[in-house]
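Running this now, will post back.
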Amino acid sequence: MIYSIDVQITAPVQDTEIADRVATAVANLFPDADPAQQHGEVVAEAHSLDHFSELLHRQEILDTARGEFFGSRRGDTFSFDLKKQAAFEGVVNFAVGNPDELGDIHVRVRVEQPTVEEFVDHVAPPTEEGQPVTQDDFE
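Update: finished.
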């Protein structure tokens, strides 16, 4: 399956923060992105969520990720926010509720190929008793 996606990543940089650390936080979760600093924020673009998907599997938070992805879906896009401090440590921590005082990393994913549902199933497959359910399990 060929995946065609555009991932836009933005993170505010407060006066008390070091912009390079915010850029590192972004790069830790999205290593194929090239973070750049502009106008008080770090911005980056990527075309893969493979590493991010590996982290979701490793941390066993696939159901949480699916809830975030589908809960924010608008047409062919979905978005989610991540905690900067956790990202700096290479850990996925979805930001829910009130935004962090330093701001969160905002990620917007636009899926061109295949459908959003198929892409989410690829990045964060459905689970049964905490284990990913593969297509082979249905046959």
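The domain at 4-113 is CATH 3.30.1440.10 (50s Ribosomal Protein L5; Chain: A,). More later if anyone needs it.
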